[in-house]
Amino acid sequence: MLFVVVNTDLLYSEEKPSGAENYASPPSTKVEDVRSEARRLTRCLSQASFPSESNCAESDMRDHQTINRVHGSLRFSVYYDQLQAFLVVTVLQVEGLVGSSQTSGLQPFVKIRLMWAGSEGTELESQEGQATPSLLWTVLQEWRTRIVKGSCNPLYGDQFSCILQDKDMINRITLRMEVRDFDKFSRHTVLGEVRVPLGKLNISFPLELQEDLQIPQKDLVGEVLLTLKYLPTSQRLEVGLLKVRTAIAEPSSDAVMYARISIQCNQSKLRYQKTSAVPRCPITVFNEVLMFSLPDVPVEQCKISVSVYEMQSTGRSNKCLLGQLSVGKDRSSEDEHWTLMVRSVRQPVAKWHGLLL
């Protein structure tokens, strides 16, 4: 049985307004058309910035700006102590970076994730329309280096370590390191990434490597079963979160999971809503429906964003972003579900979606 959950949180937007110069009229123009002024004010209001939760996971929830071309390389070392089951990762230096902003210098830092290859998921449709089973990944550990300001060749020497009791886990772990340009007032820019499968390396002694940065890619970390129902008369959209399938490397009885769902219509984000926290398991069942009142815009201009988080049920602990997905007409891979929703008026339509990180 599905339960309706209605949240009355304040309006929320994670997008920062563009520079004021984008809205100013040309110097030679003295009289501005009323329609142009209305469009300008609409853009300003729709992209207004509201305060968000001051949490590290909140900054990760926003889509990171990426670049089409990458420059530079990353020098690091990896070592696994078999006697103490200790994995040590040291970030040494990033070389040859090219700044993405012309107004300020680079402020690079490196984000490190240990990605563990878990079980295979269901058959999800790719952009080519072919359904193939995909491997589900999970994050074992996550670290970040300090920020080095104003350098295209920053030196770090930051060392991170963790305990891996099962030696066979090394063969299923990929070291994923992203070089990012820190921005306090906007989104961090991903300058490039390096992926190293640890199972293909001999890391029984400290091994130093230098790899060229590559274009960042997303990993499939889970699958979400969503239902969509559109009510055109009342201009409402019902988003149902039924199940979330994830890979778990180390089960924890204190781990709980919840989802945050928001809708963006015509560049304007509506208030977000949260589901209840449910104990995390390989297949977490929610069976909750969230109802959104849409503005007077075509439903084709709307997009649904779902972010799944994990936190500890006992004590105060920072939440951790597990993955994100979006459903909308502008996404070719999600076009089928959106089309079925529009055709099946007042009837819920269910479909599995990939959760990416």
Automatic annotation (TrEMBL):
Family: Belongs to the synaptotagmin family.
Limits of the C2 domain: 70-211, 220-353
Protein name: C2 domain-containing protein
MF GO annotations: calcium ion binding; calcium-dependent phospholipid binding; clathrin binding; phosphatidylserine binding; SNARE binding
Native source organism of the sequence: Xiphophorus maculatus
Superkingdom to which the source organism belongs: Eukaryota
SMART domains per UniProt: C2
Gene3D superfamilies: C2 domain
InterPro entries: C2_dom (IPR000008), C2_domain_sf (IPR035892)
Gene Ontology, cellular component aspect: axon; dense core granule; plasma membrane; synaptic vesicle membrane
SUPFAM superfamilies, sorted: C2 domain (Calcium/lipid-binding domain, CaLB)
